[in-house]
Amino acid sequence: MIQMRHITKVYEKGIQALNDINVEIGRGEMVFITGPSGAGKTTFLKLIYAETKPTSGLLFVGGKNVSSLASRDVPYLRRRIGVVYQDFKLLYQKTVFENIAFALRVISLPSAEIYKRTIKVLNIVELTHKKDAFPHQLSGGEQQRVAIARAIVNDPVLILADEPTGNLDAGMAANIMNFFMETNHQGTTVIVATHNKEKALKMGTHVIHVDSGQIVG
User: Measured between alpha carbons, how far is 140 from 166 in angstroms, rounded to an integer?
Assistant: First the structure.
């Protein structure tokens, strides 16, 4: 599913986020990327969904060379990827329902199917009663659950989650992680970035620990 070959990412002013990363993630795996803040976890995910490009090295996602992907082809790559952003990236002028449904409208699904899928994921994250609310009317944890619902509504083949339970209470965090695991058992590749290495080791068989931009275990 994903191959990183000697991937290095250097941002402006010489800030090196990743250094000579070599990783292979198979289709259907559940993988945890662990490490402290600033270790390079978010950059790792951003490279996969082509929000940024590597400074050097090769990156393949589903057989596509993402490291040299043309800008016009990026939306087609992302249609098959569900992303839970650390800062949510919700559309604040749209309701909860509209935020989630938006991911389906861009691929022109029929209205009845959009409604069915959106209500289904609202039930999963227990936010059906907030479907007509706007993001500013929600708590941080509720906004995070909307972001998770939006990421999974399109039945993606790959889910990328950046600290997906950071603003959730213990019960809801467990529910969300259980859902990710169930989704993975159905064949979806799931990659979760988290600072909690101990929890990752308990839940996952494939844990990649990153520190100072390098894989250390």
Answer: 10
**Are 159 and 82 spatial neighbours (Cβ–Cβ below 8 Å)?**
yes
Number of helices (H), then strands (E), in the chain = 7, 10
- Give the helix, strand, coil percentages of the chain, each rounded to 5: 40, 25, 35
Q: Is the dihedral of CA 75, 162, 68, 65 positive or negative?
A: negative
Distances (CA, A) of 66 to 56, 129, 164, 202, 208: 12, 39, 24, 31, 21
What are the b/e assignments for 99-116, b being 16+ CB within 10 Å? bbbbbbeeeebeeeebee
pLDDT digits (tens, 9 = 90+) for 12-52: 888 999 999 999 999 999 999 999 988 999 999 999 999 99
For the chain, the domains span: 28-55+79-215
**Separation CA 31–CA 111 (nearest Å):** 34
Provide the whole-model pTM. Answer: 0.88
200: exposed, middle or buried (Cβ count in 10 Å: 0-12, 13-18, 19+): buried
Neighbouring CB atoms inside 10 A of 209's CB total: 18
Let me know if domain 28-55+79-215 sits in CATH 3.40.50.300. yes
